Input
Amino acid sequence: MMKVPYNPRINAHVSMKISSTFTNFDSVINALNSYDGIGIRVDGKLIAIALDHCVEDGKLSFFGRYRISFWKYIYIDKSERYR
Output
């Protein structure tokens, strides 16, 4: 399944290559009930890293803890597949 990014202000697809097609966070939050989730465009100011298989017995593994120790601010989300 492909996740197609939309801009809720104009109700149209966005282009990953054109940052101006994205909208601000407040607009996204206001439209959240109409969509399945939030996508965030990663650019030079924001990075995203997916760490697979780093939860053991419901807790972050040593590998996971080590990897996130390099950043001041983090967001952790558990995949829907493994909830």
About this structure: The radius of gyration is 15 Å. The longest helix spans residues 62-68. The mean pLDDT is 79. Residues 18 and 41 are 10 Å apart (CA to CA).
